[in-house]
Design brief:
It is built from 1 helix and 6 strands, in the order H-E-E-E-E-E-E. By secondary structure, the protein is mostly beta strands. The protein has a single domain, classed as Roll (SH3 type barrels). The strands form 2 sheets. Strands 2-1-6 form a 3-stranded antiparallel sheet, with no helix packed on it. A hairpin with an 8-residue loop joins strand 4 and strand 5. The chain is globular, with a radius of gyration of 12 Å. It starts with a helix and ends in an 11-residue tail after the last strand.
Length: 79
């Protein structure tokens, strides 16, 4: 996948939660843009899952697909 495609998914307005599928079939859900970031070069992404505070380091070139997942990010947060 190109860095521009991944960056566009992170910056979509409104944001749509998505699932990253790697070429080795592992998946990572991005329920909110704060759960992922890409380094400026676009080669590497960091994804954090809600239940684990350690980021997964992903080579963006190894992303096979991005697909929308259920969930809502209406812009409101629980207090």
């Amino acid at each position: 996948m190109s860095p521009d495609q991944f960056r566009a998914s992170l910056r979509a307005a409104p944001f749509v939660p998505f699932r990253i599928r790697l070429v080795d079939q592992r998946t990572f859900d991005v329920p909110h843009p704060e759960f992922a970031m890409m380094v400026p070069s676009g080669r590497t992404a960091y994804v954090v899952t809600p239940d684990v505070d350690v980021p997964e380091i992903i080579d963006v070139a190894l992303i096979a697909s991005l697909s929308p997942i259920g969930g809502s990010t209406s812009g409101t947060r629980a207090a």
